Amino acid sequence: MANSNRKLSRRSVLKAGILTGAALTVGLPVTKKVLADTVGTANETSQIGFFYDQGKCIGCGTCATKCNLTWRWPKGAKWRKVIFNKNDIKTRLSMSCNHCENPACMTVCPVKAYTKREKDGIVVHHEDRCVGCGYCMYACPYNVPQYSETKGYVSKCSFCASKQDAGEQPACVSVCPTGALAYGNLAELKKQPGLVSQIAGMPSPELTNPSFVILPIKE
Fold it and tell me: Number of structural domains, the chain?
């Protein structure tokens, strides 16, 4: 699966991203839940990822606020999005860039403004290379890249790569008051039973192999 994903054409990646990204935006169910341990990645020995516990999330938005205060999002951008609907707990979600194994953003970028760090799998966006074409915005099934009219380029979550290099936690994780948001080695995270890589409103994880696992609320 991983090898075939890497061979996707720019056109097919864009088409898949537009269809699934639109569904995620409006919160529509795309497919059923996919167990996290059924979505494999080639570099799980080094890949880090996010962990999200639906049951512990109280929807306070502290994770997003801290991210914004730390990195000063460009006007109009939201690097972390928090969805908290008391009437539909199955769609509860806090999500940023998933630092996928097969990043659609990187596949379609014509100027190579995206790179994936070999040591930990973080997908880095290089703003100095970005020309603001928007290809990545259409390709990403999670609607992660955000364009800023004032800056003239795209931006997204960096997984606080510089903070991690300095031995610190990602900003969002460091302030979560309930422990609903965590991070770590993806292979280790997946050892916890009951995890999924997809909930209602999210695209199939088979598209990009996201480095994001979710412990859903028990039904």
Answer: 1
